[in-house]
What does this fold into?
Amino acid sequence: MVLNLDRCIGCWACAVACKMENSIGEGLWWQEIKTIGGADIDTSAGVFPNVSKHYQPRNCFHCAEPPCLPVCPTSAIVQRADGIVDIIYDKCIGCGKCEPACPYDAIEMNQFAPVLPTGLEQGHGAAEVPPRRAHVVEKCSFCSHRVDQGLQPACVEACPTQVITFGDVDDPDSAVARQRAKPGAFRIDEQSGADPSVWFLPALAGAKQRRSG
Amino acid sequence: MSSDQIINTVCAHNCGGRARLACTVREGKLVRVAAADAPDPSYTGACVRCLTLPQWVYSKERIAQPMRRTGQRGSGQFEPVSWDTALDEIAARFTALIGEHGAQSIAFTRSSGTSTLGRYMRLAALLGGGGSMDFYGGVDMAVHMGLNSTFGDKGMYGQHANEWTDRMHSKFILVWGHNPAETALTSMKFLLDARDAGSELVVIDPRYSATAMHATWWLAPRVASDLALALGLLRILITENLIDAPFAMAHSSAPLLVRLDNGRLLRAGDAAGDVGARAPRAGDADARSPHAGTEAERRVGPSASVAGKDAGVYRVWDGERGGACAPHEAAAATLDWRGEVDGMPAATVFNLLAANVAAYTPERVAQQTGLKASDILDLAHAYARSKPAVIGFGYGVDRYRHGELLVRAAAAMAILTGNVGQPGGGVGVQSHGSGFRLPRLAREKPLPPWARATPVPMIEVTQRELPVRALFCQGDWLNQRMGDMNKTAEYISKLEFVVTVDHFWQTTTQWSDIVLPASTFLEGTAPVRDAVVTGNSVLLRQKVIDPVGDSRPDADIERDLAQRLGLGEWFTETADEIVRGQIDGSLDPAFAGISYERLVAAGGGLRLDVPRTPNVQYADLRFATPSGRAELYLEELADIGEALPVYVEDHEAQRSHPMAAEFPLVLVQAHVRQRAHSTFFNTGWTLEVWPEPTLEMNPDDAAARGLASGDLGEAHNRRGHMVARVVCNPDLPPGMCNLGEGWKQQQYISGNVQMLTNDLINQAQTRLWGHSNIPFYDTRIEVRRANAAATAS
It folds into this structure.
C-alpha cells in the first residue's frame, strides 16, 4: 500500500469506511488520520501565516517481518501468503503481548465487548468479518475478506482524493509498484527492522507553496 | 453474504454532492454505504458524511412517533400521539386560523437537512385557497445575486461556473473563499488532479484551510477585505492593459454609455441625435445578431427570453464617426470614452469602471488587506497571463455583508480578460454539483394560478410586521436559518402554533407544539422517492429501507395533511408515479432513449444524452441580460452608488466598524467535513473524531485572554453568548475566530453560536433582488474565560 500524502485532505472517509466495513466498536479505529502539525487535531504548527500541517492516515503496515507475530503465544497472528498479517480472533487470549511489540501502534485491545451503534448492535459492514469479543486484540486486516473477493480494501474505495494505492508491490507492472518507485517514497521508522508494506509519498504542497499573508 | 441486498440511491444533503450510493441492506437494516458507480465515472465517489448514514438513520435522536407538547413551549415536554391525532389537530388549527385570519396567518419554511427540499411547497401554495406565507432564502444567495445580474438570471442558486471536469483545462485556478476539501469533498480531486498536472492552484482565504494547504499559492487577506483586493486586481488589469479589449467590447457592457446626470445607461432617444447605422461592409453576413438564437437555444430556460431584448436600445460611442449609436451600428465603438453626447455628459461603463478602481493602488490595497503590494501585482499578472484561468467561489464570501459586490468585481476580472465562455476559464460558484448541463425533468402536475404562497425573505421574518400566527417548519429553522437566535426565539415563542417535521430532536422541535417524524431519504413507502439530474446523469432516489419507527416520508405527510384540509385532489399520485411522469414526460433531448422503466431496469442510473466534453458555461457568449452582454454595470443601483462594485466599509467584520473596539474578534463558522450544515450532527463515528463545538482562536489572541487549548471560553457580544472549548490554532490570523458550523443546541455547553450572529439587512440586495442574504460572518465578539454562571445557562 502506498499513501500519497500530497493529496490527503484529512477527511477520515478511509477511517470511517474501515470502521463501518469491519464493524469496529466505539472508541476503536483500525485506521486513524494523524495531523502532522499542532497539538490538536486539524491544527498547524508555526506562527500565522508561516504554518505547517499535513495529514497522515495510519493503519497496520502488514510488515514483512511482523514483530507482533512471534510474540503471540497462541499463534493467533498469522501472515498469509500474500503478506497480509491477520488475527484469528478465536485463538486470541487477550494477553496483550502483541500491542507493545508493534512499533507502529497499530494493534488495539477490546477492553470491553465492542459497542456498536444504536440499531446496528448486530453488526454492520461486511458480514464476512468475524465479530470480536472483550479481551481480543484487533487491527487493520487490509480488508482481507475483500482482497479474497478481488476487491480493494474499504479505505481505498472510500478515499475521495485517491490517496491510497493497493496491490502487489512485487509486481513491477502494478499501480502500487509504480507509486512506490516515485521520488521521495518513504516508510515510517524504517530502522525498526519490521520491513513494513506501507509506503508514503511526502506531502509536498505545503512546503513548496508560496504564502502571502 | 447472499442475504445482503445492495440498492442504489442518491444522497440528499445540502452539500449538493448528490453522490450515487450503494446501500447494503441486511435483514431490513441499512448496514453499509459506499459509492456506487456513477453513469459518468468522473462523478463516482462518496464522502465521509454519507459513509455515516447507517448511524444517522438509526440515531438515538430519531423522533420515533408524532409528539404533542405538554409543558411550556421550549420546555421539551411532549407526549406521544397517533398520526391521526397529530394531523387532525394540525388541520383543525390551520382551518380555524384560515377562517379567522386568512391563509397568510400560516407560514411554511424549510431547511435542507430533511429528505427533499421542496416538500410542503404545494401545500403552502394551495392552503386556504390563496396561499400561505413562504419563508425562504437567507443563505448562499449573495454570490448568486452578483452572478445572476452579471450573466443573466439563472434562478436563486443557478450555476455559472464550468463543470468540475473542466479544471483540467485551466492553467490557473483561483479558489476564492471556498474550502472544497471540507465542503465539496468528492470534487476536491478535480483541483488536485489539475494541480498535479501542472496548473497553478491559488487559494484566497484568511484561514489556512484544508484546501489552502494543498495550494501552490495561498493568499490570506485580512478577513472581509477581499473586495478591496478584487478592486485592486481590476485596477492592475486595466492600468497595465492586461485586458482582452476586443472580447470586452463584443461581449460585455464595457462599451455602453452611461448618463452621468442620473447614472442610467444611455438609451436611444435620451440624446438628440444618433449617428445611426453605418454603411454595410463586406463580412457583415457573418455578424448576425448575437442574440437572435435558435428555437432550441431559446428553450434552455425561462430567462433566455430576456437575453438582449433591449440590445439595440443602448448606445456606444462610435469613435470613427464621432457620435453615439446602437452597438451593432457602430463603425468602431470606443471602449474608454468620456465626453458629451449632444450636450449630455456621458461615459462608457469601462471608463467608469476604471475610474471606480483608480484609487485601489497596490499600496492602498496592501494596507487594507495586509498583503504585500508586490504579491497583489503578481497575482494580477499571473491571472491575466495564465490563460485560461478560472475563478471559483464558495459560500464563505457569501456570508459577509457585500458578497454580491465581491463576486461582481471578480466577474469583471474574468470578463475583461476574456476568460468567460472558454474551456478552462469562467467564474462562478464551484460548490458541489456545479456547472453541469442540467436538462429538465418534466414538471409535476401544475397547480392552478391562484395557488401561490407569498414569499417572505428569511432575514425579514423577525424584522417586519407579518400576519403570521402559525409556523410549519421542515427541519431546524431556529438553529440553522436565522441570525441573532435570541431574537428568533422570541419570535417563535409568540406564535400561536408551531409544527416541526424532521428526523431528529433538535432546536426547533423543542419550540414546537406538534412534532412529526419524517422518514429519511433512504426510507420509503413507494419504490422510488424522487429523481435527480446531476453529473450528466439522471438518478433515481430509490427506497432502501422501510420507514424507521413510526416515521413517514414527507410526501405522505403532505398528502395526508392536504386531505384533511380539503386539498387531497392535488395529491393523488404516489412518489413513484410522479417520478415516472417527470422522466417519461421530459421533452428535453438529453432524455432521448430514457424512460422510467429503463431507468429502473438499469438500477436507477443512466447517463443523459449530453456531450462528453466538460460543460463550458456561456460558450455561445449569449447572456440573458437586457443588453445581451455580460453586465458590468447595474444601473438600478446607481442612486445608491453600487452600479459598479465598490468597497463599502460597513461590514461588522471590518476593522473600522464601531463595534471593533469593544469586540475585537471576528467569528466565522467554517463549514466542516463531517456535516452538511447541521445534518450528521449526531453520527457517532465522526463525533468520536470531532466530539464537541470548539472555538478556534489564534494562539496570541487566546494567550492575551489567559486562555489555552482545552479551556472553556465564553464568546459574547451585545446579541448573546456561547461557551465552547478553546483550541489554539495558528491557521487563523490574529483577530479571527472560528466555530465549525452546524452544532445543535444540545451539543453546546451553553449558548449557541447563532446567538452571536448578525442579521443586518442589506438594502441594495433587497431592492434589486428582492431579498437579502444573512451576513452570518459579519459577527464581532470578545472572548473571556467562562465562569460558572456562563456555563450554567
